[in-house]
Amino acid sequence: MTIEVNDSNFEEIVLKSEKPVIVDFWAEWCGPCRIIGPIVNELSEEYEGKTIVAKLNVDNNPGTSTKYSIRSIPTILFFKNGDIVDKQVGVVPKSNLTAKLEALL
Predict the structure, then answer these.
(1) What is the mean pLDDT of the segment spanning 34-46?
(2) What kind of fold does domain 3-104 have according to CATH?
(3) Which residues are within 8 A (CB) of 64 and not within 5 positions of it... i.e. 6 or more apart?
(4) Other CB atoms closer than 10 Å to residue 76's CB: what's the count?
(5) Per-residue confidence (pLDDT) for residue 103, from 0 to 100
(6) Is 33 assigned a catalytic role?
(7) What's residue 48's pLDDT?
(8) pTM of the model
(9) Three-state SS for 63?
(10) What is the dihedral of CA 39, 56, 91, 96, to 10 degrees?
(11) How many CB atoms sit inside 10 A of residue 61's CB?
């Protein structure tokens, strides 16, 4: 299950997590976001208990989006111990995201 994060709870859910976290930065109007969204949801189910999968709407959360210099969406950031350890910009096959996620576990 994906978790909706925002400017208020980002630090608590993402940065303080003991598990690896992937955050999908997206927006409702973004066509490519609609393509990768279901893939992100699949990963959240497949890796439940091993990782946290979160989504952040960039239109509603400009603080976090600006802090991480999100200029293109979809952007997926991979966090471990509160640090960004990998990044994916744009739509890619599920296998690319799975490989990046496996590297964190």
Answers:
(1) 96
(2) Glutaredoxin (3.40.30)
(3) 5, 6, 7, 10, 56
(4) 26
(5) 94
(6) yes
(7) 95
(8) 0.95
(9) helix
(10) -60
(11) 20
